[in-house]
Amino acid sequence: MRARTHIAGLLGTASCLGLMASMVWAQEQDDGFLGTLELGESKREIQTGTAVPVTNIDQEEINDRQANTVAELIDSVPGVTLVNGSTPQGSGINIRGYGANGTFGTDQKVLILVDGATTGAEELYRIGNQLFTDPQLYKSVSVIRGTVGSFEYGSGVVGGVVQLETKDASDFTGGEPGFRFRQTLEGYSNGSGFASSSILAWQPNRQTEFLFNYTYRDQSDQKDGNGDTIGNSAFTLPSLLAKGKYSFGDNLEHSVTASWNQSTSEERDVPYDSFGTTADAFGNVDRDIETRIAVLRYQYRPAGNDLVDLDVNLSYSEQAIDSSYVPGSSSLEGTPFFPGIRALADATHNYATTKLTIKNSAYFQTGAASHDLRFGVEFIDRERLDAPSAPGGTDRRVALFAVDDIQFGDQLTVTPALRYETQDIKGNGDAAAPFNASYDNDALMGGLSARYEFASGFAVFAGGAYTESLPIIDDLGTPLYMTQPEKSRTWEAGISYDRGDIFAAGDVVRAKVNLYSTDLWDITSYVSGTPSQPLSKVETEGVEIEASYAHATGFYVDFNANIVSATEFSAAGIGSPWRNEPTDSARITLGKRFGKTLDVSWEIFGAKSGLDSSGDPVGGYGVNTLRATYLPQEGALAGFELRAGIENIFDKAYQPNLSTRNSPGRNFKLTLAKTF
């Protein structure tokens, strides 16, 4: 298959990068003693110590990337493809070919968690809205690709899991009593964008902390590399985060955390179709969007007791979308189709998910094996209001899960995982059949992974996982789908390397190569030809590569690549390219740190030709981005943070694979921040 044929070439590329780095710095060593060397640091630490294909983006990288949306923040993760990622209302996240597409903002196979709360709508026709929030609210983002590693978070995960953690007051106070205030101002040229983020952190004592974050982001319509306006790319997004934590007990082993996270947007006279694929057929709407997330969390971590690490998380997540049709804006007014279009545009969508997760982590020994066992129970209640083409109802679930990292000595780790989930799904009792029916389903899912680490720094790993996507409220109109969970099986295998002092004292080389193969069957999310002809199967295989080299003197190279080949099969068994297949892509970042003061990097991203959301071909492209972070350590500017970036330096006009419109052209960004 195509995915396999490129593996050797990409591994060769990564090897060449390491060789180039060694040649450059071997010359520098001839200059003599360099002084006391610190460990080299790249832009992103590759997670070589786990068999799970996971990428973590920390606060430093969040700041440096200057992302307009959370989707833009994670587009540098291999396997992640964005559908119109530069605007929150039309953007979507696709991982390994699953998630957002040009019709819906999600297909339920990518799980989005904010402080443990499940967020995101079901299938809303031509409205993205999978993750409607601002990146300034968060201190870390973690992306798990695939099913392995997903069972303590949810069922039906085929593409992956995106976890976001909001900022805490102690991130700014350092855990000491007092006030801190942080102000961030950001401007960007393309779309005359502006953002302001104000954070007030207060610790009256070491037990109590409070944080308030208000972020306001505004952008006019952007232009692509040809100078053409990108329709429906303007937005205004005010967001706020209020969070408090109280710790108590003899050793502060108890803590209670409460938070409120909210983002809103008012759009006036904008196309109903956020993806911009249907011209003016659906007309324009006035649309109000609001996302609200409330979390109450209790943690108990008794000192000296390895068997108890209790985490109780009660969350409420709500997405409300209220739209009204703008008269005279549809080209189909007066046609037999218009009443249905008008009803679709004059709609109120509301999703509310209440979830209680009770989880304990226990550390114990059994013979030669040490265990890190995480087990728990989840109660999930999801409610959806009736709307045109979006039936209302409730989806109540109970899940039990257990994941055990079993360590044998210093080299072998084996991780079995299980999740059992039951479902009671009901339609609105006032609706007509079949939308008023009820169904019961259940599923047992699980996986097994293993990792073996050699003394040389190499490690090998492999795993397999099976999951089921239980029916969703959106499919109440098709009784067959309501008793047919989608099923998926994934196999993973790979190799990693993590070693220091390879070419010079203090340098670090990290690399991870992950091969995967996923089969999806009993499909209800996608159709072949007509809605009565679902696809019978989707087969996906690919390889994800992450590599980095960092020298103690500040030079670093980060590289990642994604190669994938996927096939969909009709009910008749006829195979064709998977309609949501991502294209092959690679990203390399060359950077240099000058102490703690300056970090300059050049990022190059390239993608092969592929298909857009409609299945039409789009050309390959390469895009360059320059970034610089200046953190003065002394003088009048000490404590200020200045970041500058030039995205799409050469003003390239291109349409990414799976997107419905061109990406923005050249964009100058400038950020000024200071914590007082």
UniProtKB/TrEMBL annotation:
Domain TonB-dependent receptor plug: 50-161
Keyword list, A-Z: Cell outer membrane, Membrane, Receptor, Signal, TonB box, Transmembrane, Transmembrane beta strand, Transport
Leader sequence residues: 1-26
Domain TonB-dependent receptor-like beta-barrel: 260-649
Gene3D superfamilies: TonB-dependent receptor, beta-barrel domain (2.40.170.20), TonB-dependent receptor, plug domain (2.170.130.10)
A Pfam family it matches: Plug
GO biological process, one term: siderophore transmembrane transport
Listed InterPro entries: Beta-barrel_TonB (IPR000531), Beta-barrel_TonB_sf (IPR036942), Plug_dom (IPR012910), Plug_dom_sf (IPR037066), TonB-dep_rcpt-like (IPR039426)
Localization per record: Cell outer membrane
Domain of life: Bacteria
Keyword Cell inner membrane: no
CDD domains the UniProt entry points to: ligand_gated_channel
GO cellular-component term (any): cell outer membrane
Topology term for the membrane: Multi-pass membrane protein
Residues spanning the membrane: none
Example of a GO MF term: siderophore uptake transmembrane transporter activity
Similarity comment: Belongs to the TonB-dependent receptor family.
PANTHER family: HEME_HEMOPEXIN UTILIZATION PROTEIN C (PTHR30069:SF41), TONB-DEPENDENT OUTER MEMBRANE RECEPTOR (PTHR30069)
Name of this protein: Hemoglobin/transferrin/lactoferrin receptor protein
Organism encoding this protein: Ruegeria intermedia
